[in-house]
Amino acid sequence: MNLFAQQTCSDLADPWHVGGLALQGRALLAPMAGITDLAMRRLARRFGAALAFSEMVASDERGRDRRESLLRLQGDGVTPHAVQIAGCDPAQMAEAARRAEQAGAELIDINMGCPARRVTGGAAGSALMRDLDLAQALIAATVRATKIPVSVKMRLGWDHDALNAPELARRAEGEGAVMVTVHGRTRNQFYKGEADWAAIRATVEAVKIPVVANGDCRNAADARKMLALSGAKAVMIGRAALGQPWLVGDIAHELAGAPRAKIAAELRRAAASEHFETLLQNFGESHGLRHSRKHLAAYADQAARDGFAVDPHARRRLVESEDPREVRSFLHNLYAAPRKEAA
After folding, report:
1. Catalytic annotation, pick one of 9, 88, 114, 217
2. Which among 4, 21, 187, 320 could bridge 126 via Cys, Cβ 3.0 to 4.6 Å?
3. Is 235:212 a contact under the CB 8 Å cutoff?
C-alpha cells in the first residue's frame, strides 16, 4: 500500500468527538444503498474521510440471513466501523444494533431520512418524521441495546408544513444519541431542487451534540458554504463520491487548510482496480460483476470529466461485460492518457 501512502496519509487539524470516538477531518461519506459497499468504505477512509457509513441494514427478520445483509455488516479494514440500520420496531432495532456491535461496529446510525417508498411504506426511514414518539422509542431501544455510540440521520421534515428536524434531534439527544445528520431537503422533495443548507441551522441551535450537514455537497467550496450557512460541525458527502472515493478526503483536507495535490493517475487506477477486485472477492464473479457496474460506469464518467481520454464504446462495453479480464484491461487503460482537445 505504499502507493496509497503517497497521498492518503493525513494528520487533519482539530479532531472532534462523537461519543467516545475521536474523528479526524470534517467530511464524512454518507450511507448509500448499493454504493457504500465494504470496498468503497475502505477506500474513502484511506483517502481521509472522517467516517464512512455502511449501506442500510434492515432490522427485520427477513434480512437477517441474507448474504448481502451480512456483507453490509462487515468492516474489515474500516476504522471506525459505522453501520446504519433501519426499521420501525424497537425490539428489532435493538437486536439489529446488537448484531452490528457483534460484527465489530463502533458506531450505529439510525436511518430516519431515506425517502424511498419501499422504506417509508414500511413506516421506516423518513416516515418516522411523521411519528416522533415512535422515532424516539426506536432511538431509546437502540441506545440501550449496545455500548457503542448511536447517531441519527434525518431530513428537514416530511414536508415543508412540518419541518420538525430540531424536535427530533432534541429527542434523539435526550435518549443518548451522540450525533445527528440532517439532509437539507424534506422527504417529499426526494432529491429534487436544491438542499437548503441554511435550514439545517435550526437543528444545530436546538442541540448540543454535533450536527452534520448533508445534501448536494460536490466539492470543498460547497462544503465551506454548507458549514457557514448551517453552523454544522461537519459535512456528509453522498452521490458526488461515486466514481471518486478520494473526494471526501480531498474535501476534509481542504477544510483543514491542507489541500493536497490532484490524485495521481496511478493512484486512481489502483483504487478503481482494488474496488473491482474486492467486489469480486466478496460477491463472487457473477454477482460481483453486476454489482460493480454502477461503480465502473462512475469511474469512467468521472475520468472523462477530469480530462482523461475515455472511449465511449469501451465504456458501454464495460457495463455489459461478463468477463473480469476485459474489465481489468479497461481499468488499466482508463487513466492512461489525457483527452485530446479539438484544435
Report:
1. 114
2. 187
3. yes
Look at residues 338, 295, 342, 297 and name the one whose alpha carbon lies nearest to residue 316. 297
Active site residue 114: yes
Residue with cell 454477482: 287
Residues 151 and 210: their CA atoms lie apart, in Å, by 10
How does DSSP assign 170-229, residue by residue? HHHHHTT--EEEEESS-GGGTT-S---SGGGHHHHTT-SS-EEEESS--SHHHHHHHHHH
Neighbours of 161 (CB within 10 A): 9
Q: For the segment 190-246, what is each residue's pLDDT rounded down to a tens digit?
A: 999 999 999 999 999 999 999 999 999 999 999 999 999 999 999 999 999 999 999
Q: What share of the chain is helix, strand, coil (3-state, %, to 5)?
A: 50, 15, 40
Record the cell numbers describing residue 195, joined without a space: 438542499
Strand-pairing partners, residue 57, are 85
pLDDT over 70 percentage in the chain: 92
CB 139 within 8 A of CB 105: no
d(CA 105, CA 100): 5
DSSP 8-state code for residue 308: B
Q: Tell me the pTM.
A: 0.93
**Closest by alpha carbon to 85, among 69, 101, 96, 71?**
96
Asked whether 255 and 239 are in contact (CB, 8 A), the reply is no
Write the pLDDT tens digit of every residue in 100-133: 999 999 999 999 999 999 999 888 999 999 999 9
Give pLDDT, residue 271. Answer: 98
